[in-house]
Amino acid sequence: MDEFRPLLRLHAPRWPWLLAGAVLMLMATLASFGLLALSGWFITATGLAGIAMAAGSTVMLDIYRPGAGIRFFAVGRAVSRYGERLVTHEAVFRLLADLRIWMFRRLMQLDLQGLASLRSGDTLARLTADVDRLDQFYLRLLAPVAVAAIGLIIAAAVLALFAPPAATAVALILGATAIAAALLGLRLTKRPGEQVVILSGHLRDHLVLSLRGAAELRIYGREPDALHHQGELSRDHERANRTLSRLSGLTQAGGNLATFVSVWAAAVLAIPLVQSGALTGPGFGLVLLGTLALAELVTPLPMATQALAHVRAAARRVAGAAPDAPLPHRGESGPGDGTVVMADVHYRHHPGTTPILDGIALTVRPGDRFAITGPSGTGKSTLLQLITGALSPDSGTIEVGGTPIAAMSPEAIGQRAAWMPQRTMVFNGTVADNLRMAAPEASQQSLWHALWMACLDQTVAELPQGLETWLGEAGRQLSGGEARRLTLARTLLRPAPVLLLDEPVRGLDRDTALAVMERLAHNDPAERAMVVVTHAPELLPTTFLHLQLSNGRLEPGV
Length: 558
Hints:
This protein has 558 residues and is of the alpha/beta class. It has 19 helices and ten strands. Helix 5 runs antiparallel to helix 7 (164-212). The longest helix has 54 residues, at 223-276. 38% of the residues are buried.
């Protein structure tokens, strides 16, 4: 049950809401018990009084206090049930927000390799479906079980005031049934519960990948294969759900049977008390209907067993998305200057493989313009990722602005180095929204200047609403080259003394690429250091110092 420890820690700050919800749930349950038990007493008493009066006897029966008690329990049940719904749902919504933030923080602890290993659809399932299932930990598991245990003790104590043997039998039968149902349910629902959660992630992942690759699937005629695989996953998911539904129905039937058996046992044990005069007729009705009311305590337990299977599997998947370890403490630093120093840096992607960077030594000072070229796979992008702290070197030291990367927080590194990765990321927002991610307070003049630097100002000016044009999902309004230049403009807006550009003109025609590189060379702030990775050295202005990365080492370019 180690997977529940993070959940319990996340529940702790919300204990006032959780406790209030559980108390209201217990009040509603006890109000139902009191309503039915008192109604049983009152109905029996009035029936016996009617029989006695029909026989000519004079009977004194107080109908006001029992009637007031019945109304009290009826109103109390409705009010407490309504309050319980409000409070528990508020508590659960707050918990879900906490869970998603906690999950996102764990994912953000991963380095680039760890993030790249995550499948988008499966990760989305963990952030949405799996986290949603974790709300059952309190709503279907903790609260109902605690309320059932406490409510059964209180109800048994009340019944014991009238018929101790019957109360003991009822407590034993319902308690033993709950324990047996829990043990049996844990054993039987573990496998199908885990299958439902895992298959839900696989289904979402396969669907996302199929939709993204729909064009390729159609071109190569593999749509039937994708549909067939989706159908198999759906059928497996349906079978696991059907198994859980059957088990839930059986346990529900077992709980109902246990309730009726307890009513029968209470009647059998209470009849001799009535015959001996130790229990009145109205008391007999109270015991029977009060026992029947305990079905409300037993009914949620099968759902709790099924919820446990879902919650346990979801908790494992959520906990397995990223390590539950805090980020190492790193001091905060100011922007510093644009000096980058790499000394004897070694790095390999996997242990035991040939180093992709073998003794790199590089010094970039404010105002320097470096261009690094080389064949694909030689480690050019890796070198930039090491400077940003996204990857850690196997050995050697890296400093930015006079401070070692290892001693800086990600926020401090971001203040010193603005990085444009190879992957183009455009968010579902306006042009201005995408640009201001790098500089939230940037003026419109700064935005237009950054777009001009990226040779994108005319394109944006021709859009229907200019900077306020909505770009859609993944920037569908833009072409690949335009999206690339928008990413470049966003990076240029970042007020960092070091600029790291990974293939900034990839996918652009020659004239546009030359214009972009020329503007970068002469119009970017002169005091800012710049390191550009490119496959096209012929596009580099003469102001750039050309270095070539080969066999893990930097050499002067040709």
